[in-house]
Fold each of these.
Amino acid sequence: MIRSITLALGIALVAGLPFIAGNLYYLHIATMIGVYWVLIATLNLLVGFTGTLSVGHVGLLAVGAYAFCILAGTFGWNPYLALLAGGVICALLGLLLGLPSLRLPGFYFAMLTLAFGLIVSELALAEQWLTNGSVGLQAPEFPAPFNTPHGLYWLVVGIGGFITWMTWNLARFMWGRAMVALRDSTVAAQSVAVPIYRTKLIVFVFSGFSAGLAGGLYATSQSYITPDAFVVNVGIYFFVAIIIGGRGLILGPFVGAAVLAALPALVGPLAKYGTFFYGLVLLVVVLVIPGGFGELIGGLAARLRQAPHKHTSVVPDLEKLRHAITHAHDYGNARAGVALEAEKVTRRFGGLVAVDAVSLELRPGEVHGLIGPNGSGKTTLLNLISGYYSVDGGAIRLGTRELTGTGVQPRARLGIARTFQTPKLVRALSVLDNAMLGGWPDVRSGFMETAFAGPRPRREEREIRARARAMLEGIGLGDVLGRRAEVLEHTAQRFLEIARALTMRPDFILLDEPAGGLTTAEIATLGDIIGVIRDAGIGVLLVEHHTDFVFRTCDRVTTLNLGRIIAHGLPKDVSRDPEVVRVYLGA
């Protein structure tokens, strides 16, 4: 509630500032800030939240501006309909541009968007029959009451406020957590079934739509447009505004847009050095406050809210954890006795055979240990089972369901969760938000449904939050729910990963060296947690170097060496196997 009131007061203050000044020039600057904000608000979702670099949105702005002028001016369309049509055209361009290019690494995608901006600028100059070339086009006005400077300003504020409300909804629900996960830890996002390519494409299309709206508003605010108005520098300006304001913050980039738009007026006679001042501001921000002004303010506020940092003591409440697990989900595959099976799987890296025809069966309600010397293929096998690697031979099955050709996300949706040797957390998110990411497989709300804060995303938010909180309290992290994951001690990070996996309501959990870096007492606590998980009917595959821990925790143990199984069976039998003693346990 406080956040909402603060946001509303902030928007009201910004909307009223030009009238306090009582100057039409300042009103025009404020209008331009609002126009740019319509574009930057959703570009921030793309750049700041998903980490996808786009520096060519000026091309979409130009298309929106020309579409508005041509449709409303040349063909006489209603200006509001022409404005929406420009947004739709740019959304379709975003779809056509993103479909083939969003699979490219970030740098190449940024260069492709830059090339798109250059192409649009050149076409606007060359296709005189459509754009009137260098002479340009006159922009029509909106009907009353938006045909005056004050009226246009309020129209821009209204559209900008609506777009901001949509982005705020996306940021505060599950889609926001998923986007930040894409930016900070793609591996973590994959592990909880976030569709990486599809999410980026949807955000890119949405940002294209708002860029088209901004183009129409820009055209009418300038009264006249020419190709010179859409040079590459303008696209870089949008990107710089996000960096200055603070990426991943809803109102942070607004600060950047306001600073950069108002800078020419502030420097007065030195306006011709505007690019120099832009560069200077960016340099100062990157060197002094790399997170931007928004993150600086947010960090100070967080420090005021939170108690001084103390050591995180993880003391699980096993009964509460047992209750949270058993009430979170009736594990369908586990209850039906469906096993997760790797049958003679093989994986090669060049001439190296990392896993050689290995077969392994993980049953519901058992802990299956996987041990072996370094380089024996343990983690590779985990990556094959969870879908991070494809198999060169053999098959992966969940009961009778063939998983061999599927990736990580489909397997996560089928109830296969995992942790990692080095915890893969989303460092910028809180402990609770990290655990809530595990609820993504249950999200059925679409992107636009979430943007409009419909009843289903609200219901999913409540349910997933309650489940994640229960898991965290049971596992011993209930006192640090609001703390950022990056400040947690190693033990807490380990247990947070397990809590996130449990929030997925899995049938099977693959634990990759969860005892690494833990003390003897903490390892004992980990064993108790694994016991609770097993008792709930979940299958656990435990990869670990602490053999004493493995032999007292696991129901069955498989030993690998040089990618092959050398022993398999009960812990007491494997621990005495001569080959296991020779290659791994020692005499």
Amino acid sequence: MAGLATTESKVRQMKSISANLVVAFLACIVLTRSAYAEPLDQLPLERWKELREVERYQLNIAEKYYREKNFKVALSEYEKFLTLYEQSDGAAYSQLKWSLCLIELRRQNTAIKEGFQSILDYWPDAPEAVAAGYYIGRAYKDIGEVRKAKKAYQEVLENHPKHLVAVYATVDLIDIASIDDDVDDRVKLWRRLAFDFERTRESKNHCVAASQQLAAYLFENGSFEEAVKALATTYPEDQLVAQVASFSRGPISRLTGNDETRSKGEQIADKGVAWIRQRIPTDRSTDEAKQAALQHWYAMADLHAASRREDKVAGTYEQLSKSFGTNDTTLQRLGDWYKSITKYDQARAQYAKFGNKIEAQNQIAYSYRQQQNYDAAVQAYQRNVASDPENQARWSSEVGNAYREARKYDQAIAVYNELLKTDGENAEKWLWLIATSYRDAGKHKEAIGYYRQCNNFPSNYSEMAACHRAMKDFGEAVILYNQVVGGAPNSAPWAMLQIGYTQEQAGKKEAAIRAFQQVCKNFPKDRYASQAHAHLQTKYKITVTLGGAKDE
């Protein structure tokens, strides 16, 4: 029994890890609560028309304050509507918005008991009653009453299984299941969203996200066919191959990266490749048809690459080339794959085959830069300088950039100076690069001279000030920062904070403290005020309040 318990525990742990990977990977897909709740707190135009003019007038006042997020005043105006027009067709709606104001004012319990519940009791047949049931669950969830929230959501699902609120309730239940680390419940809810709900404008994003999350989880757990079915609820046939490849690559890579799960990852990759191969279009009568077939081969190569089996990747590209010939796109993909497994010489051999010889040298040069072989990169870029006269400035610039990366600043500056002569239209760019190269080389006086010629205030002044600080010329740095404060309001909090740090470097403690306090006083809501506040506390033991400070 102990062995069985241990096995079950490992299974639960693996399922939990898989589900958490899925949630982390796709978290950006899930919408915020306010976004998906919005349709429930609006009165349809048809019902607005049914209200009397005096009722619309009062409700508009309340709605105005609600839109402005002045919830305390809006609360009072909705309550006034209920007092004056208790029998109105808009009463249930006003009660709903009154309750939502309480939610915004952090009075969830009152909203539940005196607001949403009143709608259920007095207007059980109104559309707002459906919304109220959902909002009760959400309010309980927000205050941590998870058991009551789940009960309320389950009632929504039972009473209104096809209504939009059922979608929202399911989304919130997924959130609760994630907090509880209940993988099985999460999967069940994902399935419901993916397969059971009609996809309307309001529900579509949630259903799509669920289908993607479910598919990623199923791929991770070896259920290839089920994962494909989940994605098929969202994507049409002509997009499905690309999406299957996209959502399975990550799970395959993670599984094959672990000795214990490598076999499972390879099996998923093989199933994916076989599935894609069956769908390769046979019609190649047009360029579009050929391209569609080619994309299937690229997808198969990607799955083999994700499974870390180099021989299968190379074999796939070899078959592909026999069927379609070679083109720059295929060579680029193959070269990039070789780079991904750090076989740079093989990558460059592919780039060298490009029909576009200029782009070939560009890719070769970039691969050398990735290896920090800057001399070889410079040579490749210089070949483009000679071969592509219409774009000499671009390739010369890359030569300079490669020199800068190699910290060969004198050579970089020489290149940029030449560009300053030959490409005057972009003089500002070359001046900035010369200045920055001098700065990085530690030649701050020369850097200041070139920054001064630039016209991108306040950036050039900020850089000049930094150079003066590096030379311990603190007075000049403060002057420049003050010019930023006076001439660039958006940068003023940052510049004033830098004045404090500069005075500190200069050993002028009192001046530094005054500058930090000035940041807090003049810009109390800015993030740089928070930095100044923290610095005053930790270094000088001075308590700062927004708008002022005092010594402890």
Amino acid sequence: MLSVSNLSVQFGKRVLFDEVNVSFTQGNCYGVIGANGAGKSTFLKILSGKMDATSGHVHMEPGKRMSVLEQNHNSFDGFQVLESVVMGNAPLYKIKNEIDALYADYSDENAEKIGELQVEFEEMDGWNAESSAAALLSNLGISEDLHYTSMNELDSKLKVRVLLAQALFGNPDVLIMDEPTNDLDYETISWLENFLATYDNTVIVVSHDRHFLDAVCTHIADIDFGKINLFSGNYTFWYESSQLAARQRAQQNKKAEEKAKELQEFIQRFSANVAKSKQATSRKKMLEKLKVEDIKPSSRRYPAIIFDREREAGDQILNTEGLSAISEDGDVLFEKVDINLAKGDKVAIISKDSRATTAFYEIVMGNQKPSSGKYQWGVTTTQSYLPANNDDYFQDDINLVDWLRRWTKTEEEREEVYVRGFLGKMLFSGEEALKKSTVLSGGEKVRCMLSRMMLLRANVVLLDEPTNHLDLESITAFNNSLKNFKGTVLITTHDHAFVQSVANRIIELTPNGTIDRYLNFDDYMSDKAIKAQREKMYALPVN
């Protein structure tokens, strides 16, 4: 279907890819993974023809159509929503415009040409194009009253959904998507997972969402050491097999037959839990054919995220009474929030409106006043907070050692070797620790904020979209650290695997009160009674 031959990419002296040869075949979904800067997005741009390689070439089977998820959210601002979706199938859209133009200047001379184009249009299922596009939009949460709205009237989160519909429209032979789950809610991501799990053509996707990669991928395309290696299975299988390979390599004295037995047991465990989809049987067969030499340890570096507490909190953590918040433009974000957090709670704070969850954190951290109500922290609690927007923390032009030193409490803690220890855990070692705080990337800023949180040793951590900008390695380490943390956690995240594995309680903020359940996330979202209650609370008029 699509192949890459002898592909090399070099920027100055830096070699990103070196003689890469890889093929992507029909019926499979390939998750492209790699450390930050490894070249994931660059590779997708080369596949889609938006960027040229230094050498080598990309070949797609003749007559096949490629569709790419558009990253520029304003590219179609001059078009209506429904038309923008149909434009995803460029050949069909071109014929439609030709027919419309000929009808606008109709004559006996062009009647024959119109007939020929209409036959071609019918073969492409053109007469059903608008209804198919409308169905896609509705499945992605774009209501029918918006279908003829101009794209420039939509907010960015709705534009993302329209562009996703555009990429999916017309059943492309090769579908390329870079971070397709960004700005999507859980319900829409779930719909996309189900759509792709049964998709018959070729999908190539970059994502930091581990649950999404596990749900849709038949293969992992791992960018490492300047090469791209394909592995059968989803992301979790790749991650655990690479960890197994690293352990086996460290056990030099272990006999080959013992290693093979360990691998076989590992494969059998995963084969028994393969996702239930059309691809399940073939995927299981691929796993069973895997050999010891097929899996390789990764060169990835995982940060050492360890949350510890200076002291254990008492039984009273946080109490709120009648807490409400209204946005600057008058929207009710949430109201009547009456909660009492207990020791051991790890709470997912969720809402269909991200402004609501952010307002909640800002209020209980004392950065914003509630519209009504009050809150009180337990006297034995200490809090550390990772906001969704952390730019205010990085205004001073100082190096990272001095940046982190501002949160130390004693002379001993202010010693450079002590501060560097926390930065080193987040992969800022050597000269990296002397970078200026004003020149950091989004991911580097989050890693600095995590260094700060570890240094504070609070017994309550509050996290508003903490995985934004992090790579898969940091997300995995972060996730594991919170599972092991003995304190209280309040977290809002669109990372399904993260919230499912950490939270033991769900609190949903709505304009008409809260839903509060001691459930894990999957059970909460699949509960029919809760689903009906959610729909009602969001649909009710606000008092």
